[in-house]
Amino acid sequence: MKGINKRHLLTSMMMVFLLFLAAACGGAETEAPAQEEEPAGQVEETAPEETEAEAPAEEEAMEEEAEEPAEEEAMEEEAEPEAPAEEEAMEEEAEEMMEEEERVLIIGHSEVTESYDLAHAFNPTSGIVHRASYDTLVTFPDTDASSIEPNLATSWSVSEDGLSYTFNLRDDVTFANGDPLTADDVVFSFTRLINVQSNPSFLADPIESLEAVDDLTVVINLVEPRPSFLAEMVNSAFSVANDAEVIAAGGTNAEDAASTDGAQEFLDQNSVGTGPYILESWTPQEETVLVRNPGYWGESPYFDRIIIVNIPEAATQQVALESGDIDLATDLAPDQVTGLEDDPNITVFRGQDRWTHFVLMNRDPEIGGPVSDPNVALAIRYALDYQGYTDLWTGSVTPGSNMWIGIAGAFGPDQAFERDLDRARDLLTEAGYPDGFEIELSYPDFTFGGINLSTNAQKIQADLAEVGITVSLRPGEVQVSLEEYRNGEQGFAYWFWGPDILDPVDFLSFLPGGKVAGERTNWTEDMIDEDTLALIAQAGSETDPEVRAEIFEQLQVYAQENGAYAPFNVPAIQTAFRSDIQGYIWHPEWGLDLAGLSRSN
Amino acid sequence: MSLQIYIIRRILFAIPLILGITVVSFIIANAVPADPINANLPQNALNDPELVAAFRERWGLDKSPVEQYFIYLGNLLQGDLGVSIKTKNPILEDIQQFLPATIELATVSIVVGLTMGISFGVVSAVWRNSIIDYLVRIFALIGVSFPVFLLALIGLTVFHAELGWVAGPGRLSFLVDDPPQVTGWFTIDSLLAGEWETFWDALSHLILPSLVLGSFVSGIIARITRSSLLEELNADYIRTARSKGLHERVVIVKHALSNALIPVVTIIGLLYGNLLAGAVLTESIFAWPGLGRYVFRASTSQDFPAIMGVSMLIALIYVAVNFLVDILYYFLDPRIRLK
Amino acid sequence: MSNIANLQPKSNLRSQPNSRTFLRSTLRNLRRNPAVALGIVIVIVWILLAVFAPTIATQDPLSQAVSDRLQAPNGQYFMGTDELGRDIFSRVLYGGRITIPAALAVVIIDSLIGTLIGALAGYIGGIWDEILMRLTELYLAFPTIILAMAVTAALGPSIRNAVLALIVVRWPSYARLTRGLILEAKNDDYVKAVRSLGATHTYILVKTLLPNTIAPALVYASLDIGNVILLFAGLSFLGLGPEPSSPEWGRMVSIGIDFFDQTWMWLFPGLAIASLVMAFNFIGDGLRDLLDPRTRK
Fold it and tell me: Which of A438, A585, B83, B158 has the most crowded Cβ, counting Cβ within 10 A?
């Protein structure tokens, strides 16, 4: 649009440079999506291995070695208070940097979060911000979930009975305010998560008790053996906050924290973590500002400041990206991305996104009405035009169950439903609705990850009209609708789900006794047979990988026949960014990793 | 009637109106079945009986509706409009944050609208039934007939996306920092701070939305100016002036126009209130961080305290603007003075 | 965006003495005014298109063909297709079936309510009149669209509730108009004569006063339709009207925010609104010119 020639020349040169670089690096970016089909499968195999006591020591040594150079750098840069002269020099340098120009990254993003408090927030946007401003004890590799890597914990061990996990913390980590990280911070953060009893608290359900053995050792005791526990600990809800700052802000981890904790307001605006960035401010629905944490213990990130601007409309994100107002757009629609691919200034990343879109059918007859009948739910699964959704969203696939398609053992397109209108009509007749019925479909009215939910809702409406079900659409404001959904007040709804844990146990949320089934669908344990109940119970604690895989297969078949959901689409992720942005990596657990991004000159 | 008496009369008229506005606001803010405690207090405060009791106390929730209204009125007088359900901030704070953006947009729009409207109206009245007259009338018709959202989309597509002449949605480019706040108008504040780049950026963002919003105003103003100028031009005193051999331009500008603008002045007050409301659509398309977008979000989240806080504010602005217009009218129209 | 039209016609309308001669002269003058004629033709065309939409439309306005989505206008789809492959031409035709009845409902019901309340207030006078006047002033102070938004937010978005909201918001201007007319007519010699003959209040009101106010109210209503259409479209554009799949014009334009480049998706329904509003404004302008002694030659 403006100054095209010069910019064109520059960017084409950049592209050539980038190409060389990509070739040199072995095209890490293009391989990423392909790997995602497998990663979780490896979690399953490697996680138990690592839990054996000797393994971590080895790991640790290797990791330490690998990280050494980075660490030295960090050490030099931040903490040497005894050498004031040097520090001054550093400051001068820093000032010069400032004068040179602050390195700013601007991200256009459709914001979905009601908080940035670790104990309350549990949303896509908060996941990205938490990843940047806090650290967890353990983590995954950059692009997949194939193994458990050390993070704040250098090593860990598991007791013989699988009930007790001991984590050894790094001794060189300080919070952004300079306080050293101690085991007490870990215990405080996790017990606060448990006792605040908010959205992510259920993740801590497997935990029986916690204890800080010494300054750098934490022991976590579980209710029952749980092979997926380390993978769960990667979730940003298990990030470590500085207990002193949380307490100073009115926070508490006491048993009655649900009513007495008052730190949320502070934590919505400030981060108190050890991550590469610090949350500077948050204006809900406007923008989130992160600044570089100068005392970060790991490799210092490139950008000094990251501004996440809330741009709910995909088209606006596109225009802003094209004009260079933003560097990266997270929520473009597939149609737009196709058009952008020819633009030399813009690089497009495509991969399998982590969201499974599904229709929810409440099992409480009072709330769900006709769809509370399992036969009607099955009819609806047969009535959806799955092919249509994949045509609508380029790169998307049809899932076979509510287990995210990237998790090993998840039912994929091969095992998915195929549309069968006759079957659907028969089932409806069987259920006593030969002429269909009328029902309201609730859904949050917004565009997420480039998927306009309203478009899908209209398609669901049209699909079901063909079997005589008259759907009226009831779009809701995101937060309002989310509240209803979480309280189990929606009878017939359209939502999407991203795995909390990159492990098959995540799927248990959708079966009786699980979070989504119990709280949001009112599908309770007394509604199913003893055998399935036993199978569900065994699924969580089974340690033999083969038996485990067998169980999860049976459970997915069970859900296909009897479930209260109709999973219909797993869209692709499409992120587009200015071509001078490098280091874009997408991870199915936390999404975008801000600390890895940089700008080429 | 002297000016003082006139002003006192106007104020006396305004008081019941303002009281009425508060009553309506109170009724609507409370007409919703939702439990105000549930809606207003954060989740974890609900478990705290002391906080809940304090909230009840503050808004008199256990008293009769009439008493509740007076408590509401009392809180209002202290500037307490309640707390927004959506943003969880005091509504007054929210308004302070979002109002300047809307005022800036609305004021620039009305200036644009008045300038275009009056000049178009004059041109088309003077050259009545000429091609220019028809063009102006068609423009005025488009201005009042095209939905603002359509004009906004066309404007964005043509002048922003295709031609790149003006900036798109938002008040400033994302990279540009807000100027230090003085008036809350980005154009003025950036000038005060001597930040030229910020000024141009703010101006570039202001052009499209204010043209879209102003086109509606200019359509109406052009029509009124035209018809009232035509009437004046046929009046006896103009004929006298002409027969005295005065230059036509003097006749039109000095004599006819000044009288013809009286009806325009009367309508400004109304237009201003309407502009603030029309800003709802314009602001949501242009991602303009003003009251219109705020109140739209409030309405989708059933945030009634916020909706009513904003509409009360706009109603009060309306009353104030009309008060000023009345006083202006006093000076412009000799008939009032003679009454 | 709405109260403005309320201001201008009042003074002109009020000066019409008798409704029968008024109607007759209006009809006579209509023929001489081409703009009005054009407006009437456009409105009639839209009404016909809406009535015969099922026959004219090439597709079911709700049927989706995902494989044909986002097509620019072509021989098969005259106005292209939208993001779900629905035919925009057919949807625009069907859109008239929503907007026209909705606007008419608002205007007609408001004329009835407004005339009734305004007539009573004007006739009875005193405290009732005072209350009505203060109430309408209050209404004028509140921004129409925000009040309408509050109403739809409370009732939930739907066509019915949007219509309801507009009815609730707009009746006072009708009441004001009628009241003014009644006040003037009350002092009419004819009415005075009837009253002196001992006629009942009901008789005077129904037989002599109301007929005088109906024609001006109708004219005012026709002037107001354009505004009502714009408000209705605005509410649906914001998602406070019909549901998303509805072929309502304002709703169809709103998807344009996501599809700048596919101009046909939002331009055609947008122009449908504009042309209909413009037609009503043509009619309104013409009527105003005819009724306004200042511009009449």
Answer: B83
Closest CA to B312 of B276, B287, B338, B288: B276
C239, A445: Cβ pair inside 8 Å? Answer: yes
Which residues of A are less than 8 Å from C67 in CB distance?
391
Candidates C153, A494, A263; CA nearest to B85 is C153
What is the torsion angle, in degrees rounded to the nearest 10, for the CA atoms of residue B149, residue C252, residue A361 and residue A197? -10
Local confidence band at B1 (pLDDT 50, 70, 90 cut-offs): low
pLDDT digits (tens, 9 = 90+) for B158-173: 998 888 898 888 888 7
Q: Domains, chain B, ranges and CATH? A: 100-289 (1.10.3720.10)
Instruction: List pLDDT tens digits, range A194-224.
Output: 999 888 988 999 999 999 999 999 999 999 8
Give B304's contacts (C-beta < 8 A, 6+ positions apart).
B28, B29, B30, B31, B32, B34, B85, B298, C150, C153, C154
Q: Which pair of structure tokens corresponds to residue A302? A: 């490139």
pLDDT tens-place string over residues C189-239: 777 787 788 778 888 777 777 777 777 777 788 888 998 999 999 999 998
Residue C243 · residue A462 · CB < 8 Å? no
The residues that bridge with A569 in the sheet, in sequence order, are A357
Distances (CA, A) of A333 to A423, A571, B35, B96: 33, 10, 39, 35
Cross-chain Cβ contact B287/A311 below 8 Å:
yes
A220 residue type, one letter: I
Which residues from chain A sit within 8 angstroms of residue C84, using beta carbons? 392, 455, 458-459, 462
| Alpha-carbon span A343 to A323, nearest angstrom | 12
Interface test with B, best of A1, A2, A198, A483 (most B CBs within 10 A): A1
Q: Which residue of A has its CA nearest to B176?
A: A325
**How many Å apart are CA A568 and CA B301, to the nearest integer?**
28
Pairing type for strands A104-109 and A305-310 reads: parallel
Provide the β-strand partners of residue A347.
A577
Q: Is A2 exposed, middle or buried (0-12, 13-18, 19+ CB in 10 A)?
A: exposed
Strands A581-582 and A277-283, sheet pairing: unpaired
**Closest to B313 measured CA to CA, from B109, B112, B110, B100:** B100
Tokens of B194: 């001597």
- φ, ψ of residue B295 to 5 degrees: the values are -70, -30
Q: Which CATH superfamily does the domain covering C31-59+80-291 fall into? A: MetI-like (1.10.3720.10)
Domain ranges of chain C: 31-59+80-291
Do residues C109 and C169 make contact, with C-beta atoms less than 8 angstroms apart? no
User: Looking at the complex, does the CB of residue C154 fall below 8 Å from at least one CB of chain A?
Assistant: no
Query: What gap in Å lies between CA B318 and CA A485, rounded to an integer?
Result: 40
**B-chain residue closest to A306, CA distance:** B175
Please state the ipTM of this predicted complex: 0.85
Contacts by C137-140, CB closer than 8 A, 24 or more apart: C137/B17, C137/B20, C138/B17, C138/B20, C138/B21, C138/B24, C138/B315, C139/C169, C139/C172, C139/C173, C140/B270, C140/B318, C140/C3, C140/C6, C140/C172, C140/C173
Lowest mean pLDDT among A130-139, C57-66, C115-124: C115-124
- Provide, rounded to the nearest whole percent, the portion of chain A with pLDDT above 90: 61
Measured in residues, chain B has a length of: 339
Contact call for B174 and A323, based on CB within 8 A? no
**Structural element, H or E, at residue A439:** strand A438-444
| Cβ-contact A202, A168 below 8 angstroms | no
Q: Which residues contact A257 (CB under 8 A, 6 or more apart)?
A: A192, A195, A196, A197, A251
Contacts of A389 (CB under 8 A, 6+ apart): A357, A396, A398, A456, A459, A568, A569
pTM: 0.81
Confidence at A33, pLDDT banded by 50, 70, 90: very low
How high is the mean pLDDT of chain A? 84
Number of H helices, E strands in chain A: 22, 24
